[in-house]
Write a structure and sequence with these properties.
heterodimer; A: 277 residues; four-stranded antiparallel sheet; 11 helices; 10 strands; B: 369 residues; two-stranded antiparallel ribbon; 4 strands; globular
């Protein structure tokens, strides 16, 4: 069963072999076409339920994209596919021109430059703010290196820089578990920044935040776009309006509408999905 | 190594106190045994010294369990398998040391092989007449088993209770295998009747003291090595794995590798403990593989308080002292006492004895303020 499959793959004329691409392999993602993420015809089903249904979407380099959609539209599943947690039944997912996400493991994808912030803040509760950022820091993460690792001045500077961005400098020795909900969300964004990713996936960043916290988060995300590509999944429409340039609406596992926020908001199909039957 | 030792002594008060205490007890007990004559009030008997030495090897096993359970959340219920493998490696060396002084007087074959009518030494017994080779095997045999087993388990992401269950199966399978005579490890009776170690008579008082001191040194070195690992960035990664494995994976750490190497290191510590245990008790048999022993080792750690290392040592000493006491005073109820201890410690002492001590200290401090 295995062999014919492999042969078929080998004979496939479209198949790009890794050794052809050696020049473009490595941590640097190739964005020569100004597109950072290609998702094409992706379908995922769980026990017959189609979480994603021929989803096709492109994210531009340096873009800040918001993804909205009712519950069960497949937003989180899409994130899972991109980060390697879920393997799609069909379809292709490419990171830049040369990195096939479907052939990479979770750590490899993280190393290639995709960082993810989860819906619930999942910081390491028993580690301090400083240690959380240290753990997330980009760099060699093999067993031997970490066993004998010493903090370099440059790394220390980077951690301080990020702590300043997320405003947690006074709490650097506090256990992450003792932070408020909003602070945890920021710490999580800070951890994302420490990874220095090219593409940030941010899942519901302002859930449970106060208006002031929400505002600061919006500023933070807008300031990140350009240098990084940012994909934000969010329910809060005010928040989306305050940051978004392009919005994608997901519905039943595929793209329902895509475009500037004003156009999308007045799309009758979108209104129907959101306001119900 | 020395730099890290210095930094431990500077920054980690609890471990420094523990190391100091261990040194004092070891030196005093050894001196009291050697300097004062028997019958003197200050004399520590060789029997007591042997008992303490045995506890120390148990404590090292507990430290090995605590390293993976307390810091990485891997609950191995088969850790005495590695302890016993280390013990068997040492036992094989001690058997070869007997030479022609065995009951049957065969210059090469151990007694049980002569008894089984074997005429040649099995291939895996070669080399064990050399101490360096046996010492290497004490580390290598548990490491290989842990590597193969851990590689399969962690790569398939077997975690939690499923991992615990298959470690029980592992140690039970080894128990059954070592019971078989044709395995060539002495079957039911195991390896015993040892005569000497590195040319020193095992019955001699000085040898016993040397073994006791070696156990203490091994325990101290084990604790220091574990401290070094835990206070490195590697240590913070394994604790992150304990708290949220999938998150650690998303940050880009190869969780399986981290768990695997920690598991292998822990198995080697257990192997060393086993190797020091065998010459002090004078026998190694398949009973050491019994699943209940591994569970007991976990109980020591739970009673002492996991995630502190010295807590594991305290637990190992407390429970084993209780065991020694109860098995003599009340042999029938010992097992119930063990079970009760585990229930009580999980219900009322979730942080073990160490947690209790910390609480009392805190109260005192608050009262003073």
């Amino acid at each position: 069963m295995k062999l014919p499959n492999a042969l078929e793959k080998f004979a496939d004329r479209e198949h790009v072999f890794d050794f052809v691409n050696t020049g473009t392999q490595g941590p640097k993602v190739d964005i020569s076409h100004n597109v950072i993420l290609y998702l094409e015809d992706i379908s995922v089903s769980f026990d017959g339920f189609k979480a994603l249904n021929d989803l096709t979407m492109y994210i531009g380099a340096g873009e800040l994209r918001c993804i909205i959609g009712p519950n069960g539209a497949g937003k989180t599943t899409m994130m899972d596919v991109i980060t390697g947690k879920t393997r799609p039944d069909t379809g292709t997912a490419w990171f830049g021109q040369s990195i096939n996400l479907l052939q990479k493991s979770e750590p490899e994808i993280a190393e290639a430059g995709i960082g993810r912030k989860f819906q619930k803040p999942t910081v390491f509760q028993m580690h301090s703010v400083f240690e959380n950022l240290e753990l997330a820091m980009a760099g060699n993460k093999s067993v031997w290196t970490t066993l004998f690792a010493r903090m370099t001045p440059m790394q220390l500077e980077r951690i301080n820089e990020v702590m300043e961005i997320i405003g947690l400098q006074e709490h650097q020795h506090a256990l992450a578990g003792s932070l408020s909900h909003g602070q945890k969300q920021w710490l999580e964004i800070g951890m994302l920044l420490m990874q220095n990713p090219t593409l940030l996936l941010v899942d519901e960043p302002v859930a449970g935040m106060t208006p002031q916290e929400t505002e600061r988060t919006a500023e933070l995300l807008v300031s990140l776009a350009g240098k990084h590509s940012v994909v934000v999944v969010e329910h809060d429409m005010d928040f989306v309006r305050s940051i978004a340039r392009t919005v994608t609406v997901l519905h039943e596992g595929s793209v329902l509408a895509e475009g500037p926020i004003d156009v999308v908001q007045n799309d009758p199909r979108v209104i129907e999905v959101y306001l119900g039957e | 190594m020395f730099a890290s030792l210095a930094s431990i002594l500077r920054n980690d008060r609890a471990t420094s106190v523990f190391l100091l205490l261990l040194t004092v007890v070891t030196v005093l007990a050894s001196l009291a045994n050697l300097l004062f004559p028997e019958g003197s009030a200050l004399h520590v008997s060789t029997y007591t010294l042997g008992l303490l030495g045995k506890y120390m090897t148990y404590a090292l096993l507990a430290v090995a369990v605590d390293l993976i359970w307390g810091y990485c959340g891997i609950l191995s219920l088969g850790h005495t398998a590695f302890f016993a493998l280390g013990g068997y490696a040492m036992g094989m060396y001690l058997m070869r040391q007997i030479g022609n002084r065995g009951v049957y007087g065969d210059p090469v074959l151990p007694d049980f092989m002569v008894f089984l009518n074997w005429d040649t030494l099995p291939w895996y017994w070669h080399g064990f007449d050399m101490f360096w080779f046996a010492a290497l095997m004490v580390l290598v045999a548990p490491a290989i088993l842990a590597f193969v087993f851990g590689w399969l388990a962690f790569r398939s992401r077997v975690t939690g209770v499923y991992f615990s269950i298959i470690t029980q199966a592992l140690t039970y399978a080894l128990l059954l295998a070592f019971f078989r005579n044709e395995m060539g490890f002495g079957g039911n009776n195991g390896l015993t009747d040892f005569k000497d170690l590195l040319g020193f008579d095992l019955q001699a008082n000085t040898t016993r003291v040397a073994l006791f001191i070696s156990s203490a040194v091994a325990l101290a070195a084990g604790v220091i090595a574990c401290r070094f690992i835990i206070s490195s960035r590697f240590g913070r990664v394994i604790q992150a794995i304990r708290d949220s494995e999938s998150r650690t994976r998303f940050i880009g750490y190869r969780v399986d590798n981290y768990k695997l190497w920690l598991f292998v290191f822990s198995a080697m510590l257990a192997g060393i403990a086993g190797a020091l245990y065998v010459p002090q008790v004078g026998i190694i048999n398949p009973g050491e593989f019994a699943p209940i022993n591994s569970i007991e080792a976990v109980v020591w750690v739970a009673v002492g308080g996991r995630g502190t290392l010295y807590g594991a040592v305290i637990g190992a000493f407390l429970v084993n002292y209780a065991k020694t006491y109860f098995t003599i005073a009340l042999p029938e109820i010992w097992l119930y006492a063990l079970g009760g201890l585990f229930v009580i410690s999980t219900l009322f002492l979730p942080q073990g004895v160490v947690g209790l001590m910390n609480k009392v200290m805190q109260r005192k401090q608050e009262a003073r303020v």
